[in-house]
Design brief:
With about 325 residues, the chain is α+β, with helices and mostly antiparallel strands. About 50% of the residues lie in helices and about 20% in strands. It has three domains: about 5-190, Sandwich (Jelly Rolls), CATH 2.60.120; about 195-240; about 245-310, Orthogonal Bundle (Arc Repressor Mutant, subunit A), CATH 1.10.10.60. Helix 3 (about 140-155) packs antiparallel against helix 5 (about 165-180) and helix 11 packs across helix 12 (about 275-285). The chain starts with a helix and ends in an 11-residue tail after the last helix.
């Protein structure tokens, strides 16, 4: 084994060591540092719908597969995930003979992104192509691993997390911007870019998902024709605006049922469904089981009092 590979393995083992101390159960759970979550799976978890914020996900052990349209994105100890926009997709996790799947997720903050972009030379950034604009995997290098290790070690102390953690998060975002997929995030800052315009529409859906949204109005708000809006929205999210809205409603309803203990009919009404029976049918089709079955499964895995963030992603 080369010196470079030995160095990478040493860092990976350090990440695993700290993550095993920090993770107390399965699922994706929040940490004491806002915007940073830890994920763990002790066994193979089947392909299931998830909802990720714009984020960077670094896996130390095991493997995760994300399914977006007809694409499969693998992120593992060799490749980290870059997600530029809020995106519902399907995901499965794999543990290994060495131990559970372990990783850390860092939310991408737009103010941090903007600040860093102003300080680095973004000219001549390559165009990654449509398939990498919203979600992609990129090789994990030693510099990124070192930044992730620092962040994880800071999380072991509330004081270190509060004082030093934000700097480690900032460095990780910086490393992404300087990496091969940095253009996927930088495009969000170009006000007239298609990715930035679609993100505006996504934010409108996320803020008003319980309302009756009109595609024509959303297209007008971002300065596109309806046909161009449909095309660009699907290029970024691999789904139509109305299907995106439906998936957001179902994820939000799942949170209300599992975390807040609301009944299915009440949750359906809260997220904008007019028919409780239609909601139950679509929930079972989307998640593979009824709201009651989903509640039992998730609470068994995470505990009855699991925080809301633990159920997303």
């Amino acid at each position: 084994m080369s010196e470079a590979n030995i160095a990478i393995e040493e860092r990976r083992h350090r990440m695993v060591e700290v993550l095993l101390r920090l993770t107390t159960g399965e699922g994706m759970r929040p940490t004491i540092l806002d915007g940073v979550k830890l994920c763990r799976a002790d066994r193979h978890t089947r392909r299931t719908p998830v909802l990720y914020d714009p984020s960077i996900v670094i896996v130390a052990n095991g493997r995760k597969r994300g399914y977006v349209g007809d694409r499969c994105i693998v992120y593992d100890p060799n490749n980290y995930l870059v997600l530029a926009v809020p995106l519902p997709f399907e995901c499965e996790s794999e543990a290994t003979s060495e131990g559970p799947m372990l990783g850390v997720s860092i939310r991408v903050d737009m103010s941090t992104l903007s600040e860093l972009a102003m300080k680095i030379d973004v000219k001549g950034k390559p165009n990654n192509g449509d398939e990498c604009r919203s979600i992609c995997a990129t090789p994990l290098d030693i510099q990124m691993m070192d930044a992730a290790i620092r962040l994880l070690e800071f999380l072991q102390s509330p004081v270190d997390a509060a004082v030093l953690g934000p700097g480690a998060v900032r460095e990780i975002v910086y490393r992404v911007l300087r990496g091969k997929r940095g253009a996927a995030l930088l495009e969000l800052l170009a006000r007239n870019s298609q990715l930035a315009q679609i993100r505006i529409a996504q934010q409108q859906i996320l803020s008003h998902y319980a309302e009756q949204l009109e595609v024509a109005r959303m297209a007008e708000d971002v300065g596109m024709s309806v046909s161009a809006f449909y095309h660009n929205f699907k290029a970024v999210t691999a789904t139509s605006p109305l299907q995106y809205l439906k998936s957001i409603r179902l994820h939000k309803a799942r949170m209300l049922i599992v975390h807040d203990g609301l009944g299915a009919a009440v949750a359906a009404d809260r997220v904008g469904y007019e028919s409780a029976s239609q909601f139950s049918r679509e929930f079972k089709r989307f998640f593979g089981q009824s709201p009651t079955e989903e509640t039992v499964k998730v609470r068994k895995m995470l505990g009855v009092d699991a925080p809301e963030e633990a159920l997303v992603g």
